[in-house]
Design goal:
The model has no long low-confidence stretch (mean pLDDT 93). The chain starts with a helix and ends with a helix. It has three domains: 82 residues, MurE/MurF, N-terminal domain (Udp-n-acetylmuramoylalanyl-d-glutamate--2,6- Diaminopimelate Ligase, Chain: A, domain 1, 3-Layer(aba) Sandwich); 223 residues, UDP-N-acetylmuramoyl-L-alanine:D-glutamate ligase; 151 residues, Protein-Tyrosine Phosphatase, Chain A, CATH 3.90.190.20. Helices cover 32% and strands 24% of the residues. The protein is globular. By secondary structure, it is an alpha/beta fold. A hairpin with a 3-residue loop joins β7 and β8. Strands 9-8-7-10-6-11-12-13-14-15-16 form an eleven-stranded mixed β-sheet, with helices on both faces.
Length: 481
């Protein structure tokens, strides 16, 4: 593309050099720069692209977009100064791929818990309704029925727009995507045109990145603040910050709830380990999901589908046939009569939700054994909280490793144990090796008991000292069976 045409979509503060040049690619990673590239110097949490401008030029970049023009100016290179390089990258990526989000009905799902479940179930629902549909999620990306491996909850701007362009090329009409707080804060979704936004809930998470809960909340709210007036904003009225999300939104406002008045109201009539009977806006529907949090997720799915002009009865019919998302309250039945549940719960609130649900179904007729760890190089403040949630809600809690990353696993365990008093410690075991922890939990389980393995869900790896090893909680449980 001609650079001058491309940059019509961003605000330039200062320009040095000739912008009437042809660029063959856009890159923000200097290692991927080739001849006639446009290099966008973005500031990341670990590195600053401005430090690699000279390297990008040496590799063939002909134009540079940056927040600060370097002192050393190379002849024949076009330098363009902007206020925010990440925001510029998003808008340029959208233009480069011919604005794919404008050619799809794009709905974003944000919140601490439930993003993957809601986005994935909407994807499944709309495919069942007969539409070609795309999905961008933590577990996997889909271009209709074609799978594309996911590396981040929300990809970088270039990857994101390329995937959306591929969806357009494949004939997709709808696309559903998880929108993480990191992606919002880092302007990865800049330039995208959303037709709807869904808020699930917000509890403590990613404090290692956002530093305060207020910053985390603000990042989520920014997404709804930026929705256009012809989009919908669907929020969880049961979350104390649910209505806060809509305060400054120009979008059409709707709510869903299990507890109070809302546009989309759901009640749990019956529940067990095989599913629930729900009342959704005065219509009964059997579902194969378990727990209040899943009833809330399904309420959001139902609401979003109706707001996208789909027939209510047909939507409920398909909801009754949908299956649990991989690693989200995934139930496995042991030959010895106990039940194992693998769940991604990795925040105190999510763990509390899962444990409460299991105990409500057990009604004292079985014991709960919980296996849980905490990730390394992440928010240390939630470690003692996770341990307390596991111990207080379980007959026995086994504290173990999650993804230690570059931390010593025992140090992470010590942080968790530090949150327990003398009595709580008697109800817990600490086993560093996750495989041994799962084996121990299954060995303790008797007929009628439940073993909850929390924290990793769909993940099929462990990162130990920076090295990725294959590890799948579901495989380990089946070995124990």
């Amino acid at each position: 593309m001609i650079l001058n045409e491309l940059i019509q979509h961003i605000l330039i503060k200062k320009s040095i050099g000739n912008s009437e040049i042809n660029v063959k690619s856009i890159q923000f990673d200097s290692r991927k720069v080739s001849m006639d590239s446009l290099f966008v110097a973005t500031k990341g949490s670990a590195t600053d692209g401005h430090d690699y401008i000279e390297s990008a030029i040496n590799q063939g970049a002909k134009a540079i977009i940056c927040e600060t023009i370097p002192e050393k100016i190379t002849e024949g290179i076009c330098y363009l100064q902007v206020v925010n390089s990440s925001d510029a990258l998003g808008k340029l990526a959208s233009a480069w791929f011919d604005f794919p989000s404008s050619k799809l009905i794009l709905v974003g799902v944000t919140g601490t818990n439930g993003k993957t479940t809601i986005a994935t179930l909407l994807y499944q629902l709309f495919r069942e309704l007969g539409f070609k549909t795309g999905l961008l999620s933590t577990v996997c990306n889909y271009i209709d029925n074609q799978t594309v491996e996911a590396t981040h909850t929300t990809p970088d701007s270039l990857t994101l727009n390329e995937l959306l362009a591929n969806m357009v090329d494949a004939g997709c009409k709808y696309a559903f995507m998880e929108v993480s707080s990191h992606a919002i804060d880092q302007s990865r979704i800049a330039g995208l045109e959303f037709d709807g936004g869904i808020f699930t809930n917000i509890t403590r998470d990613h404090i290692d990145y956002h530093l305060t809960f207020e910053n985390y909340l603000k990042a989520k709210k920014t997404f709804f603040d930026s929705l256009p007036s012809d989009a919908f904003a669907l929020t969880n009225a049961d979350d104390k910050n649910g209505m806060v999300m809509l305060q400054n939104s120009k979008a059409k406002k709707y709510s869903y709830s299990l507890r109070g008045m809302a546009d989309f109201k759901t009640k749990i009539l019956e529940h067990g380990f095989d599913g629930m009977l729900l009342d959704m806006n005065d219509r009964e529907v059997n579902v194969s999901f378990i727990g209040k949090f899943n009833a809330s997720n399904l309420s959001a799915v139902y609401g979003a589908a109706v707001l996208l002009d789909q027939d209510e009865l047909e939507v409920l019919r398909i909801i009754s046939s949908l299956k649990s998302v991989s690693g989200r309250f995934e139930t496995l039945h042991a030959p010895l009569g106990y039940t194992a549940i693998v769940d991604y719960a990795h925040t105190p609130d999510a763990l509390n939700n899962v444990i409460s649900t299991i105990n409500q179904i057990l009604e004292g007729n079985g014991r709960l054994i919980t296996v849980v760890g905490c990730g390394g190089n992440r928010d240390k403040g939630k470690r003692p909280m996770m341990a307390r949630e596991a111990v207080d809600g379980s007959w026995k809690a086994i504290l173990t490793s999650d993804n230690p990353r570059n931390e010593e696993p025992q140090d992470i365990l010590n942080d968790m144990i530090a949150g327990l008093d003398v009595v709580q410690k008697t109800k817990s075991l600490a086993i560093v090796d996750r495989r041994e922890a799962i084996k121990t939990a299954c060995a303790l389980a008797q007929s009628g008991d439940v073993v909850l393995i929390a924290g990793k869900g769909h993940e099929d790896y462990q990162i130990i000292q920076g090295v990725k090893h294959h590890f799948d909680d579901r495989e380990e449980v089946k070995k124990c069976f």
